Amino acid sequence: MNDYITIERFSKDKLDSLDVFDWPTWQKHVCEFDWEYDSDEQCYIIEGIAEIDTPKGKMTIKKGDFVTFKKGLKCKWSVIEPIKKHYNFL
What is the pLDDT along the chain (90 residues), one digit of tens a residue? Predict the structure, then answer.
């Protein structure tokens, strides 16, 4: 259980109802970087794999995951395969 990150799998109909495919995209090459979330973020992983190291442990996100990052999270991203996502700040 991780209080900072929620990973879910949604049907295409659910993703469409959230307008996910109209959200902006972001991509990153293989690398590591520190990040802090100053607001909640929802994202849908289009491609790639990343490991997110949080105070509650490591979580892996990958293609097809719908991820919610909570405001206040301080973490380290390790992009294992180039990643691309649709994102929305709440």
Answer: 578 999 999 999 999 999 999 999 999 999 999 999 999 999 999 999 999 999 999 999 999 999 999 999 999 999 999 999 999 999
At residue 35, what is the residue type? W
Q: How many CB atoms lie within 10 A of CB 67?
A: 20
* Domains, the chain, with CATH or none: 5-89 (2.60.120.10)
Amino acid identity of residue 34, one-letter, is: D
Cβ atoms 31, 88 nearer than 8 A? no
H-assigned helices in the chain: 12-17
Q: What predicted TM-score, i.e. pTM, was given to this entire model?
A: 0.94
d(CA 38, CA 35): 10
Rounded to whole angstroms, the Cα distance separating 18 from 67 reads 13
Collapsed DSSP state (helix, strand, coil) of residue 17? helix
